[in-house]
Structures are given as structure tokens and as C-alpha cells.
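User: Just a sanity check before I run the rest of the batch. Below are the C-alpha cells for the first item. I only need the designed sequence back.
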């Protein structure tokens, strides 16, 4: 791979994006803000979309990813194709020794994810996932408290994503299809809440790196607000979780709750409770009150400035995507582990797979 040196002496990572949809713009804007990254190319099948993207972000457009990887010769590939089409560009990049940062979910089944992990290991490349909620200041704060065991013996870890999507969001799109979305409200929208709550709960436990903090699930799914010809998969799901330490949890994932409201994450135990409503800390209370707690409550008490995607999927800021890309590139440059590697990104998909199996069979499902 070819790398250039910016004025500060750090290497510049030649970066390409596979799949030019709405989220690709967030990655492109993020790259533009990062001194150690340069966007050299983007690929998509639609020429008008590709040329517009190339003009806006001063890069080259390619009609297919294979040609882009061969001709643009990037150091890093960011995969933004539809969810069920993440495997193929990742394998192509791995064959060429190109590091890969992949949008959520890493893929729509753990079997396909495992193929990606195997290819990355064989090629000795870095394969990382994108779950931007982990990189927000507020959830970093909760994670720090969880790792510090401030919640004591954990009792519950809950995630509620009561969102809404209009019919036209699904019409003629890959979203909401089994083939490319792999599921509905859970796999596409609520996966962020599922990932962050299992990550927070896992920080209170002594787990192996590849061990999922969720041990068992029981779930129901339904299609309640969208007709069958609009949506193939669920728009409403509820699940009960049992974590490996015996604590319990509830999940609500929906795109059926007009007009949509803010995501809520709760973590609580004998030692205290933290509750986050989108990006506002509505509860931060511990038995061992510390001097910094009042400052934390004040710092995160402001009401959310966006809906967080509750009704509009693009009503989000790209600052956390920028943090993710910066962290990924730092890991690539230093050979230090990327904190949201493929094994970590796999965990949320494994939980959702188990939920779908439970809803289909009517029985509890244990995670391996």
C-alpha cells in the first residue's frame, strides 16, 4: 500500500469507501476532518450518485469495489454497503492486505461474520466495526463506572429503542428486507442499543474477550405498523435477557411507535443506577457518592439537541463517526488492538440471532 507523510510526520492513510449511501457522507466528512486520512475513492453502481459523491468529496468514483481496490490502491477500506453485502468487499480487501472498518452490523449472520474474521486473521489485517454509541462521552462515562464496579452486584441492564419509520423509508429500499437487512427494527435500528447495553453490562463481569455477556434470551417479534408488502421483517420486538452473572435485562426495539421517542439505556444494581435518555443523563446515583458525581450530572444534564434517529435516520451528528475512524487509524498505525474489533462487533449480532430464533420457536435460546 502507498502512504504519504503529512507535515506533522504522521502517515496519511489512503482511504476508500465501498457503498455510497447516506452514511457514506458521514464517513467522508469525518475523513475530511482527520489530518492523517485522505479519501481517495468511493464505489457504487449508480453513476449519477457516484459522480455527485466524488465531486462533493474530491475523490474518484468507481462502478464496482473490485476495480476501486485494484486501481485506487487504498490502505483502508470503509464498508458502507447494505448490511447483507459486507462480506464480499471485506474478503476482497483482505486478499489485498487492506485494513477494513465496517459499518454496523458487521454482517447479518454470525456465520458470515466468522468468515470475515477468518479472512482478516489469515491476511493479518485489522477488521473493525462501527457502533458509534460506544464512543460518546456519556457512555464512556457509564462504562468507566461499570468497569469500576460502582453498580455493585448488577441487577438489570435494559435498552429501549421506541422509534418510528414511515412507509416510504422502506419502499423500494434494501432496508426491511431479509436478504440485505437480515431483520428489521432489531438488526437495523435497535442494534446500537443492544450493543451498548451488552458492552456496559459486560464491563461489570470477568469475561473472556470472545465471551458474550448475554447467556440466554426469550423473545417475541411482530409486524404491527407496516403492511407485508412494505416490510418483510419485524417492526416490533421485545426480549428478556439473562446475563452470565445472573442479572436480567429487557429489550424493546421498534420502528412502529409513532412519532418515535428517544432511546433509553438503564444499568442498575445494589450499588447504584445510571439511566441515559439519548444523550442526557437522567439518573446518576450511587451509594458511594464521589466528588466528581455532581459535575458528571451537570455535564450530561442538557436535553438532546437531536431525535437521535427516533423518526429521522439521519438526525445524528457525525462527530462520533470521526472518533471511530481516528481510533481505528491510530490502531492500524500503532499495531495496538482496535477496541471495537470484529469479535466485539459480533456480539450484538449473536444476541439478535438468538432473539429471532426464540421468537420463531417460542422457546428460550442460549448463546454459545
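Assistant: Here's the designed sequence for the first item:
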Amino acid at each position: 500500500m502507498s502512504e504519504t507523510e503529512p507535515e506533522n510526520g504522521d502517515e496519511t492513510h489512503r482511504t476508500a469507501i465501498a457503498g455510497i449511501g447516506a452514511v457514506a457522507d458521514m464517513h467522508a466528512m469525518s475523513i475530511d476532518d482527520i489530518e492523517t486520512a485522505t479519501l481517495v475513492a468511493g464505489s457504487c453502481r449508480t453513476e449519477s450518485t457516484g459522480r455527485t459523491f466524488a465531486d462533493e468529496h474530491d475523490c474518484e468514483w468507481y462502478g464496482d469495489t473490485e476495480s476501486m481496490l485494484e486501481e485506487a490502491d487504498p490502505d483502508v477500506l470503509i464498508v458502507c454497503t447494505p448490511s447483507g453485502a459486507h462480506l464480499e468487499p471485506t474478503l476482497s480487501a483482505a486478499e489485498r492486505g487492506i485494513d477494513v472498518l465496517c459499518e454496523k452490523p458487521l454482517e447479518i449472520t454470525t456465520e458470515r461474520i466468522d468468515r470475515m474474521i477468518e479472512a482478516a486473521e489469515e491476511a493479518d489485517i485489522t477488521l473493525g466495526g462501527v457502533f458509534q454509541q460506544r464512543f460518546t462521552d456519556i457512555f464512556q462515562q457509564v462504562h468507566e463506572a461499570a468497569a469500576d464496579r460502582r453498580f455493585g452486584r448488577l441487577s438489570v441492564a435494559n435498552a429501549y429503542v421506541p422509534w418510528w419509520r414511515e412507509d416510504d423509508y422502506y419502499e423500494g429500499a434494501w432496508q426491511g428486507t431479509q436478504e440485505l437487512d437480515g431483520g428489521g427494527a432489531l438488526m437495523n435500528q435497535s442494534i446500537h442499543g443492544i450493543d451498548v447495553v451488552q458492552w456496559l453490562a459486560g464491563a461489570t463481569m470477568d469475561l473472556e474477550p470472545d465471551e458474550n455477556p448475554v447467556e440466554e434470551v426469550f423473545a417475541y417479534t411482530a409486524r404491527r405498523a407496516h403492511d407485508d408488502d412494505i416490510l418483510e421483517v419485524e417492526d416490533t420486538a421485545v426480549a428478556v435477557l439473562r446475563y452470565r452473572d445472573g442479572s436480567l435485562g429487557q429489550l424493546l426495539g421498534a420502528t412502529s411507535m409513532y412519532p418515535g421517542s428517544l432511546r433509553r439505556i438503564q444499568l442498575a444494581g445494589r450499588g447504584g443506577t445510571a439511566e441515559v435518555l439519548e444523550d442526557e443523563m437522567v439518573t446518576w446515583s450511587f451509594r458511594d457518592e464521589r466528588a466528581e458525581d455532581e459535575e458528571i450530572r451537570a455535564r450530561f444534564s442538557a436535553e438532546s439537541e437531536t431525535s437521535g434517529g427516533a423518526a429521522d435516520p439521519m438526525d445524528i451528528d457525525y462527530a462520533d463517526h470521526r472518533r471511530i475512524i481516528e481510533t481505528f487509524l491510530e490502531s492500524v498505525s500503532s499495531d495496538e488492538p482496535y477496541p471495537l474489533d470484529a469479535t466485539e462487533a459480533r456480539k450484538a449480532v449473536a444476541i439478535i440471532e438468538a432473539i429471532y430464533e426464540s421468537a420463531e420457536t417460542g422457546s428460550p435460546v442460549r448463546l454459545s
